[in-house]
Design goal:
globular; about 20% strand; Domain 2, N(10)-formyltetrahydrofolate synthetase; Formyltetrahydrofolate synthetase, domain 3; alpha/beta; 12-stranded mixed sheet; Rossmann fold; single chain; 4-stranded mixed sheet; 3 domains
Length: about 550
């Protein structure tokens, strides 16, 4: 019998009214702002009241380096949350919102898969509750106010050559990367070169995801550096008096979104910075609120553990005072074969040697995660083509690296297929063995922080940065930004900056193309290799097959 697609499974889900899901967590109806019957925002007043309560245990789900074969990190996050609830634990899931860009580009959807999904799937992958639209609008309001200020006399003496604030769009659109604005004559202002980033790379997205409340949000928005004068004096968002209006646009977007899994368990879906060009974690306010309401919180960090998990530890946990109890590292037989050199078309037949060859990638991620002082469990996300011998290879390999590996069948069986992992994760979390510590201290120099990540996480031999970049880092240190953590913008497909270099490469270099100061978010973005902060669409984008059927239902999200 053919398998149902994710969207067919999601469409057949028996959802409970969102007020019932909120009641499971003790959220009164008056503190839920419903968006239809199956999703709602949680009020800021309710969140404020939770502050004095004890925290539950924080569980991070991450993965080996992504391949076209698929790993299933979000699917495992959702499955584990369902599994914990199935064994009698009070667990809450925290994941990110989906960007329209990759939805219509390569991914097609981002709400889990199989029988481990969050619903409503279609809305989550499209407009949802409008958070990304609000972030896009707030960001571009600031862009408009910069050009408007210059048009009306430029009292702040902004150097138009040194405006660092671009515009954003929640779509993959390579043609907008490098643009010229204000053409058309005097009435349209002064022409200048600029461009667009994707919304998930916006500093406003990062700020929303790292802010504790609206007051903190406005303070951080005001701290955004948008431009410099001719004598290199920084111009801040608050200098343009834009922070108040931006906060108004983001007021509702700051409230976490509550939805449910296929098994009617609560899930917070809030915020969505990419991990290859931003910090890759859901919002601090959603995670902190979930920790007050559940005994266990299962969250994910984007892409492989060298990106999302590293930033989760070094940026999110550092800034929010969080401390994970367990790391669940997702691996698949198929992805291990690809890391072992097998072509995608040849992944079906058993190939034990290729799995062995590809396990080096898993081993490096295990070592990296353990270096943060947090115990690691490997979740082998099962595919029907996996053989017992191939699964055994991963289990044996993980064991040699001091990590237990557990086969999980949540994609096909929901919570029933992940009971063993849920039980073990709860045991480890309750044991209190984690001794979490970030990779580097605040007072390390900015370049040394970059060098530490490159050498200890990526296993690079060197970081290549020209004099201009090194001088810029020193200037920021002198200006009081030396304590900030680093946010690496790098390909997700490899430990190196070469997306074709799979497995666990050594002997490579990390070339820095550009550095950006995100003073409001509170980190330094380091752009490496050929990574783009505005992606393009593939030759055959998912948008070509996304449409409405005769019943008015969305097709093509998978």
């Amino acid at each position: 019998m053919p398998f149902k697609t994710d969207i067919e499974i999601a469409r057949a889900a028996v959802k409970k009214p969102i007020m019932e899901i909120g009641a499971k967590l003790g959220i009164p109806e008056a503190d839920l702002l419903p968006f239809g019957h199956d999703k709602a925002k949680i009020s800021a007043a309710f969140i404020k009241v939770q502050e004095g309560k004890p925290d539950g245990k924080l569980i991070l789900v991450t993965a080996i380096s992504p391949t076209p074969a698929g790993e299933g990190k979000t699917t495992t996050t959702v499955g584990l949350g369902d599994g914990l609830n199935a064994i009698g634990k009070k667990a809450v899931i925290c994941i990110r919102e989906a960007s329209l860009g990759p939805c219509f580009g390569m991914k097609g959807g981002a709400a889990g898969g199989g029988y481990a999904q969050v619903v409503p799937m279609e809305e989550m992958n499209l407009h949802f509750t409008g958070d990304f639209h609000a972030i896009t609008s707030a960001h571009n309001l600031l862009s408009a106010m910069i050009d408007n200020h210059i048009y009306w006399g430029n009292a702040l003496e902004i150097d138009e050559r040194r405006i660092v604030w671009k515009r954003v769009l929640d779509m993959n659109d390579r043609a907008s990367r490098d643009t010229v604005v204000s053409l058309g004559g005097i009435a349209n202002g002064f022409p200048r070169q600029t461009g667009f980033d994707i919304t998930v790379a916006s500093e406003v997205m990062a700020i929303l995801c790292l802010s504790n409340d609206l007051k903190d949000l406005q303070q951080r928005l005001g701290d955004i550096i948008v431009a410099y004068t001719r004598d290199r004096k920084a111009i801040y968002c608050r200098d343009l008096k834009a922070d108040g209006a931006m906060t108004v646009l983001l007021q509702q977007a700051m409230q976490p979104n509550l939805v449910q899994t296929l098994e009617n368990n609560p899930a917070f879906v809030h915020g969505g910075p990419f991990a290859n060009i931003a910090h890759g974690c859901n919002s601090v306010v959603a995670t902190k609120t979930a920790l007050k309401l559940g005994d266990y919180v299962v969250t994910e960090a984007g892409f492989g553990a060298d990106l999302g998990a590293e930033k989760f530890m070094n940026i999110k946990c550092r800034k929010a005072g969080l401390s994970p109890s367990v790391v669940v590292l997702v691996a698949t037989v198929r992805a291990s074969k690809m890391n072992g050199g097998v072509a995608r078309a040849d992944l079906g037949p058993e190939n034990v040697q290729a799995v062995k060859d590809g396990c080096a990638n898993l081993g490096r991620h295990i070592e990296n995660m353990k270096s943060f002082g947090v115990p690691v469990v490997v979740a082998i996300n099962h595919f029907v083509t996996d053989t017992d011998a191939e699964v055994a290879v991963i289990k044996e390999y993980a064991d040699t690296h001091g990590a237990e590996a557990i086969l999980c069948k949540h994609w096909a069986d929901g919570s029933a297929g992940i009971i063993e992992l849920a039980t073990r994760v709860a045991e480890i979390a309750d044991s209190g063995v984690a001794q979490f510590a970030p990779l580097y201290p605040d007072d390390m120099s900015l370049f040394d922080k970059i060098d530490t990540i490159a050498k200890r996480i990526y296993r690079a031999d060197e970081v290549i940065a020209d004099k201009k970049i090194r001088a810029q880092l020193r200037t920021w240190e002198e200006a009081g930004f030396g304590h900030l953590p680093i946010c690496m913008a790098k390909t997700q497909y490899s430990f190196s900056t070469d997306p074709e270099l799979r497995g666990a490469p050594t002997g490579h270099s990390v070339p820095i193309r550009e550095v950006r100061l995100s003073a409001g978010a509170g980190f330094i973005v380091v752009v490496c290799g050929e990574i783009m902060t505005m992606p393009g669409l593939p030759r055959k984008p998912s948008a070509e097959t996304i449409m409405l059927n005769d019943a008015g239902q969305v097709e093509g999200l998978f």
